Amino acid sequence: MIGSPGLSPHAGTGEWSPRDDFDRVFDAHFAEIHRYIARRLDTHAADDLAAETFLMAFRDRHRFDAARGAVRPWLYGIATNLLARHRREEVRRWKALSRTGTRDEESHEDAVAARVTAGRVTGRLAGALAGLAKRDRDVVLLLALGGLAHAEVAEALGIPYGTVASRLNRARKQLRKALGDVNPLEEAHDG
Amino acid sequence: MDEITLLASCLPDAPPPAPEVVARARARLKGPGPRTARAGSRRWTPVAGLATATATVAVAVAVTVVVAGLGDAAPPTVAVPAKNGQILLNIADRVEKAPVETGAYWRRRSVIGSITSVDAASDGIGIRTDEITLWAPRESDDPVLVTSKMLRGRFLALPRGTERKPWNPAEKYDYKLGEALNNTCRYSWKVEPKGVLYDRRAADLTFADLEALPTDPAALLERLKILWADQSETFPASGSTARRGLPRDTEKEKYLSFAAVSLLNLPSPPALRAAALRILADRPGTEVVGEVVDALGRTEVAVRVNADEPSDAGIPAAYQVMVDPRTGELAGDRSVAVTDRGGLPRGTVLNYTAYAEQGWTGERPARPRGCERVASIP
To answer: In which element (H, E) is residue B148 found?
Structure first.
């Protein structure tokens, strides 16, 4: 075992503290951190960077301060910092996705269904993401892909809550502009 | 739905990490381990006893990635031959010195997506996803195993009597989505005469042939031209070609393009792969589409081959091969609609094959249980 077994989740958050039992932190969060990175880069990069995220977290586990935030934002913050080294690859991915415009995800059926019903929204969104400043993209993707709350994004990035709001506001304007006349925000999924 | 929710639902999702990835990440917490070792999830487990100096390194991928050197590709509609070719040449430069690997079997797991019956007469769009696993033996008297499983099958039904119109983002289609077919599993198990390998677009090649082919691009091209001459004498003007009345030079160019693709599709040694990439880069019909995200969420280099190929199942389509920028191997191929038709917009991937994993292994195949044995699987 990496940590000490048999300890309780951290009081107040219901999460396992990295100080106490890193095994449980790993079990609880590795897959979601991997998924977050894979959706921003690709699964191969995620294999490395997710492992690197947890290695860094493990080495810094004694500096984790539960009073300053929960485990998830802490891990997402580390992962996002590691992603910064791959900014060019990420932008290339979004550009590539904007060219193909395909929602090639878990199945071809879903991809085709999405194309014939929801149109080219994915491509437009990907193109817009490529054009965002990295700091704005981090905020948007921590919310969208990480599922963090605004306050947790502030914790993850170590920035004030108000800064999260202003970055988000700026990014949303660009996303809306990119979506243009398709207006997918009002388009229902058929079928 | 706001922009954040839309992003969450529209951006490609990712599969969960493979158990070995999780295990490897966990192991890194327990010991010092190599910090920069790259996880090789697209390779099978490395083969014991590889003839390389790096065999002691417990990672599956032998080629370092220098993706940053690729640069942004040109848009699909703009063909810039010099720049396009350069991307393939850069990959060739990287892979030609890669270590030579071998094993008892070359094993490949492919995910295949296909669309059927997209035309004015059909009631909708049939879409299915299959998984095919191939075991190609190093020794010619060992059996070849091909297993095919249908993973998913769906039918997108259009309302009857609706006149087909070009797809319009503003228009709402009343597709009905449902499961269409039961899962099936089939396999073939046979010893291939003389050990001829699975891709015969260049010639009937064995592993020994691959190792004997020249790795100098000019010499390889000359060898391919000789193979072409032999084939065209043996099989003068094959059916479809004769019907379409293609000039012999066009036919020859088509052969050379697909022969190069075939060598990339086979388990060619790195130096031969590099030569094939250089030949492909130089073919007049080759257009590098650029980096694309494939069906498995990976970034690959899409290359349109012999760009005058007109269609796929009656739909005007471009045939593209996906080149893995890390290894120069083929990572799959696909057909992309070049016009809007039957409710499918231009750019839709009509059919694809994605090689989820491939590599040499010391393991041997076992006949799958619960699958029907057939003579061959296409």
So the answer is: strand B144-157
Q: Is A141 inside any structural domain?
A: yes
CATH of the domain at A157: 1.20.140.160
Q: Answer yes or no: is A77 within a domain.
A: yes
Domain contains A97:
yes
A122: chain B residues, CB-CB within 8 Å: 10-12
| Cβ contact A35–B293 (<8 Å) | no
Domain of residue A140: give its range. Answer: 22-178
Query: For residue B53, what pLDDT is reported?
Result: 26
Please list every residue in chain A whose beta carbon sits closer than 8 Å to the beta carbon of residue B154.
Answer: 109, 113
Residue whose token pair is 């990439």: B277
Q: How far is B295 from A106, CA to CA, in rounded Å?
A: 8
Q: Tell me if A13 is assigned to some domain.
A: no
Point out the residue among B12, B25, B156 whose CB comes nearest to the CB of A54.
B25
Q: Is A10's pLDDT higher than 50?
A: no
Model pLDDT, residue B251: 84
Whether residues A145 and B11 touch (CB distance < 8 A) is answered with yes
- Chain A: residue nearest B13 by CA? A105
| Alpha-carbon gap, residue B332 to B347, rounded angstroms | 17
Nearest C-alpha neighbor of B186 from the set B237, B229, B146: B146
Checking if the pLDDT of B256 tops 70, the result is: yes
What local confidence, expressed as pLDDT, does residue A106 receive? Answer: 41
Would you say the ipTM is above 0.85? no
Nearest-angstrom CA–CA distance, B23 and B90? 34
Which residue of B3, B68, B75 is in closest CB contact with A176? Answer: B3
Q: What residues of A are in contact with residue B2 (Cβ under 8 Å)?
A: 172, 185
Contact check, Cβ <8 Å, B39/A48: yes
Measure CB to CB from residue B129 to each of A109, A118, A141 and give the nearest one.
A109
Contacts of B298 (CB under 8 A, 6+ apart): A42, A43, A44, B42, B331, B354
Structural domain count, chain A: 1
DSSP state of B103: -
Nearest to B344 by CA among B304, B309, B305, B317: B317
Q: Is A103 on the interface with B (CB under 8 A)?
A: yes
pTM strictly above 0.80? no
